Amino acid sequence: MNIVCNGDRLEMAAEASLYEAVSTYLDAAQTPALNGVAVACNGEVVPRHQWSQRTLSDGDRLDLFTAVAGG
Amino acid sequence: MLTIANTSFSSRLLTGTGKFSHSGLMLDALAASGTELVTLALRRLDRRDRDAIFEPLQAAGYRLLPNTSGARTAEEAIQAARLTREAMGTPWLKLEIHPDPRYLLPDPVETLKAAEHLVRQGFIVLPYVHADPVLCKRLEEAGCSAVMPLAAPIGSNQGLVTASFLDIIIEQSRVPVIVDAGLGAPSQAAEAMERGADAVLVNTAIATAADPVAMAAAFRAAVDAGYQARRAGLATPGARATASSPLTAFLDAGSDAHVG
């Protein structure tokens, strides 16, 4: 199935979890650290402790956010 | 001690983490400032350009105050708050909603709306607002844990442009007043503290100084001096001179005369 992660298309096995998708997306750039990251699935914020259980469907849109410097 | 939402801080200087040329310099400056509460922002993750800022700050033991910078409406700020709570593991929030990119002035209507909602959701809300005493009171009544009125537009280094309104806010507020934005020099931070602010937040003036670490130390000393002066009780200004030395001694005695 295909999902969209921060605008990039990501091909995942059927019923992959949100955690797997996020790991796949970040590992591709050798940045596996998930500390300081939040994820919304189709606009709904998914708590970190649900990332492993949350299964994705074809066409789901993930938005990843992270802490950056700011005032 | 400064107490916000039942949490005590020895330092009355909050610092932002933006605009430093690199994160090592930022960490050194934060250490020199003595700050215990630092602001962060949230952005869409760019996997090609990860900003490794969260872990070093967490490791250094700072309490984090994520902001909602970038939000233009209450709805966007509420979504940003949910994301920062998940990303940074804290319900503390610097609520800022400024739709206008030119002056970055906070929208009072959207800010109050968002604050009321977020307090009910269990967030520790510190709203960034204009120096509006009525609005600050309304935010306090809504359950905000502090108010953060601006001294001048963000990053403008203009100092205490809103001084007389900050005085009213300070007089009326039952929650800590943190003067935020526009403080460009340690003397201005000292004056804010002398006027009775509970704390100040400084970012640009430290981050963009020629020597940010030295400037952070200067702000630390200024905030401390201003706070101590406030507690000591400032002398009242007057239009006329009042002698500090006995003016008659020179004329009367002749021998033990002293001047100055």
Task: Outline the structure in words.
The complex is a heterodimer of chains A (71) and B (260). With 71 residues, chain A is of the alpha+beta class. Chain A is 14% helix and 35% strand. In chain A, strands 2-1-5-3-4 form a five-stranded mixed β-sheet, covered by helices on one side. The mean pLDDT of chain A is 88. Chain B has 260 residues and is an alpha/beta fold. Helix content of chain B is 39%, strand content 16%. In chain B, α5 links the parallel β7 (124-129) and β8 (148-149). Chain B is globular, with a radius of gyration of 21 Å. Chain B starts with a strand and ends in an 8-residue tail after the last helix. The mean pLDDT of chain B is 93. The interface between A and B is medium-sized, with 27 and 38 residues. β5 of chain A pairs antiparallel with β4 of chain B.
> How many distinct helices of chain B?
10
Question: How much strand of chain B?
Answer: 15-25%
The overall pLDDT of chain B, averaged over residues, is: 93
- Spans of chain A of 5+ residues with little confidence (pLDDT < 50)? none
Per DSSP E runs of 2 or more residues, the count of β-strands of chain B stands at 10
Radius of gyration of chain A, in Å, reads: 12 Å
| Elements of chain A, N to C (H/E) | EEHEEE
Count of separate DSSP helical elements of chain A? 1
Strand residue content of chain A: 35-45%
Strand arrangement across the biggest beta sheet of chain B: 5-4-3-10-9
Largest interface: A-B, 27 and 38 residues
Overall radius of gyration of chain B: 21 Å
What's the main sheet of chain B like? Answer: 5 strands, parallel
Q: Helix fraction of chain B? A: 25-40%
Give the uncertain stretches of chain B in residue-range form.
none
| Shape assignment of chain B | globular
Major sheet details of chain A: 5 strands, mixed
